[in-house]
């Protein structure tokens, strides 16, 4: 038996023995995401048990080195592990911005001390992280940020405001971009710092969106003292780290909204929605214009899916698509908006209800979701920024 | 009629604009949407509008109206739409009011319209049953029982139905769902036994009710006009109402465009005003064209009603289709150009997008009207 | 009888007595346009007679002062005259760029001597003018023109090249923008000159377009000597005149392609085309997508027509639309392209033929016309330039 | 199969690209369009392509082919499309060649395909009769006369028909225009009595003929396969050909995009490169997305044929619809961004627009394929 087959067999046995009933198969009670952090609660014991057992084995982050809380698996082993987990209908119960966005840049830019301090807590889901990038005045001009960190002996004093800090109200620490030099070109005076949100002077206020309550917050820093040692990388060199982290963020967004199982479930339902809502007894859609739009949307999804597949295949073949990731963000966010909008028009009048006694809660949620989707072309880099990136980085058009 | 405002119409516009500026603000929408019961509009505001005579604009003087035309009605509606005012204008004056004016016999008109004109009586039109606007897709049955009718069925999206005293209900006295023939309009008090209202607050903070009719008994004299004439009346009502609604939409279209252009001039990014970016400039220029084209077709369609032009119904469809598409564009571009601010509840621009969506689906969206236009044109 | 009624009665009598049979009613043989000029020929005597009689009465340009070849009519009289001409199914047989574009700026900026020299010849159709504005290197940046005029004593020596000079090969004179100062900002070194095309050193070469032969030419100036007296306005102040002339050009384009009888004939035929080509026996179009496009186009035409009407009505009410004329150019050229494109797709395979034995000549002409229409969004100011103008002049967006 | 080129496919692509660069230039299109008679392509060029084996790519080795797949065919077609090469590839290899390979009996395949594979025999498919692609709208009648058939009717837009030795003609042995049933394919020599060819040069300088059949007598063994199986064969031929044509279109799409982006980098206006204008940048960025999406669906649809995936036909429609729309966009934006130069015959960009239009209407435009996609998907 080859090494990898041995690994597969051992993994299978361990999963069989350790994955509790509530975390697998059709009876799985795993929530969509367990984000971890100090305020994490568990609706079911099996979820907690499953998380604890995975943490113990380093399998919440299987490819991380063991000293950081991982299991040091190879890419091949990781793939096998995922296959075996899928086979019994389970997955890792832990996902977080810390894992997907912060950890990769810590691995690359942090000191060994910082890594040992923060990575294991991420791997174990002890600390939940949020992102302090955007500011109200800066918008798409991320590097135009004003949040100021003044060095005073062994600490920085931070004053300023961040916006769109997702889940800041339920997070424990924040990684933030701050201005440490105001005399130089804007990209050259930025540092990347880690801030415990329990520090005095940090306060958080949730943002209400057009769709109602939201995970987004404003985060205020009022004379917040942060040790110099919480800075990652050199002072004033934070922009490099910031950009790298954005790449991880875009990858995460592309994967999480990609053509995975979720999207195909939704696909199913859009055509079904049309049939249920409007079709003749023979299943034909009588409204030619809507039928045409639905077809166009379905075709676009096929094209997008093939493009996503091509990019994955190209990456496997060592031909990365690079800044083309902006294309995915641009196209997908708009396609999702179109799909969501079309769905609303297909279901008609119930989609117009903000609140009321005669409309099912899930319909109201769909409407909120449609509204929330309007943010898809703005947050995480507006469509305009994505087009700028494509024009400059992919097409090489002059500034 | 020329496609410019007369001096009188300009005065009316200025007066309406001033009224809206003094008496209304968008913040009221934030309050209205959280009210889970009661009237979905401000009664005091409605009273003032009635006192200004606006509620009587399209009705003949013999019924207490001003005997003016849709050109004038459109002027007022545009200003109300510009401010996103919530008032039962479309529901009581345009939809149900027109149904009575066009379909009622003289006694019915004399008994009902004066109250509509002076704003003391609120009507609502209950016709829709299918997910999307589809005037003949009516299953609600009106069954003769002795001299009375018994009405049974379910209506959705009855705009301002929660505050209406009297409902105009479309039901079948013949034919089956989808047929043009066999429709009859009934006048039904909103508090009769067997009638249940369920209140919904819409996206744009307006109210609409769903209605269950369970063997609701009405006398035969509550038939509006004559039995079987429902579709004739509804066709004309919808052609007029689509244009009136478009006029209201035009106000929101213009205002959301103007606000966004202002924002482009004010907002700094990368050290310059975002209005200097050609990408946004070109989109704003195209958007401007759409706004202007919408204004033109709305003005033309309003005048076509007053002139009783033959093409009226086709123009109405062209008008509502264009207004729907343009207002939708306003929602999309307005929010996108406002960036992150645009998706917060704190910014007003989102309310235009929400009003755009409700208005778009009311009385048929552009898909519906392209289809209708083609049918009317025989292709 | 009021003055105007007297005028109407006299005009009617004169028209009745003087308009020859071939120039009126259903038997009219008037060509689409008689452009005038030295090379004008007449296919029918009546056309020539009609032109001569109108010239004599000053009615080719009824509102111009009599000393310039007009009849000095008031706006009201002019309107009445047009009504009476329409009543017998005739119109002025003369139209030219000289009348529509050059004459208005001569009236405003030229010396009395220049006016007396040129305007009567325009009114009488003796001289045909063409426009020397664009240059190959400048494109949309009209003011970036390089065609150089060096002052030498009592004349300029001109060297350079113009492009898109419509009908230069059949014109007698050209009004041209030339650079008379290279040391100042580009808008400040331009002069407006009139050049007899028979001058030594002027040569013309027709341009072949994607649609085949075209009215456009390149015009070359090789040491062309032009008297100083042929300059209109001050030296280096030509840009003001140039811009004014462009406004007249845009008005001319909007009117000539507006919602007049021509367009409505075409409207008729687009729906007929669809019916003939594709409809079922009941007249329904089976292809839902095409039907939808056709409807959208028809609706857009209604909207455009109403907008044109509104602008006319506003002008009558003294509320000019000003720079909104860019909107007409932008929207109309694109709408026409869409209409033309749709027509081609409706008629299908015959629209694909460039040349061949089995396709009627008029179909080939339609195809050439569709191709030629591609120039509609480029020549006379690209759509991009129109959008720039709207953004700046109408919306007041910052530079 | 992964959506990347294998090493072998990359070699094939490089070889094809080199061949096109060495042997062809767009100026030839200017010459071809003015030829009023003769073959519409360069025979020498065709011979060379045959010697390179490209003409045999999709056919089984037993018939003299290379036994490769559509993935490989697509690679070659893309490069031909990139150069706007004129050659009877689509007509003889893909359309008529596939019809014989899919519909012919063994004797027919053995007798015809070797000549198709080595390029010495040219076939063409004569099916279209209606203004737009509509596979079952066939009225041409095949009437039994003793043991023979007599064919009468009219065919249009027979691509490269002027150079074909043998025509595959779709005719009715049953049913009536519009029916799927009753179609039969016939092999008809192009020089038989009663058959008249009328030659047209298309916009893109390719040739197509219209054909009159006036009681053309053919023997019963010239039925391709069996009578009545025409629609089955045609359905599959068109699904494959739509994808192959899309691959060819992809080449022109990519090339016209690349050329325009280069132009944006080179052309000065207002003292700067026009590629600095954000209005054009954003349009170029969106155009880039469309090109990439087209490439993906073309690659996927080609592989779906090779893998005989069930979804093949729906993918083919999605593919041809997208390629048609994207190529059309290329024509529009390519010309517009080239400005005045773009509309002159001197500039090459116009030839891409012309090829785009012909390719768009061949085998169904996006309107047709959206409809077909919906039908295949049952909505």
Summarize the structure in words.
The complex is a heterotetramer, with 2 copies of chain A (399 residues) and 2 copies of chain B (379 residues). Chain A is α+β, with helices and mostly antiparallel strands. Chain A has helices at 3-18, 45-57, 75-87, 97-109, 112-123, 238-256, 261-278, 288-316, 325-347, 361-372, 383-394; strands at residues 129-132, 148-152, 155-163, 173-179, 190-196, 202-209, 212-227, 231-232, 353-356. Chain A folds into 3 domains: 3-95, Butyryl-Coa Dehydrogenase, subunit A, domain 1 (Orthogonal Bundle); 129-236, Butyryl-CoA Dehydrogenase, subunit A, domain 2; 256-394, Butyryl-CoA Dehydrogenase, subunit A, domain 3 (Up-down Bundle), CATH 1.20.140. Chain A is built from 11 helices and 9 strands. In chain A, a hairpin with a 2-residue loop joins strand 2 and strand 3 (155-163). In chain A, helix 6 crosses helix 9. Chain B is an alpha+beta fold and 379 residues long. Helices cover 51% and strands 16% of the residues of chain B. Chain B has 11 helices and 9 strands. Chain B has helices at 7-23, 27-32, 43-51, 70-82, 89-103, 106-117, 230-266, 278-306, 312-342, 349-361, 366-377; strands at residues 123-126, 141-145, 148-159, 166-172, 183-189, 195-202, 207-219, 268-269, 272-273. In chain B, the strands form 3 sheets. A 4-stranded antiparallel sheet of chain B has the order 2-3-7-6, with no helix packed on it. In chain B, strand 6 and strand 7 form a beta hairpin. Classes of the chains: A alpha+beta (399), B alpha+beta (379). The interface between A and B is large, with 48 and 46 residues.
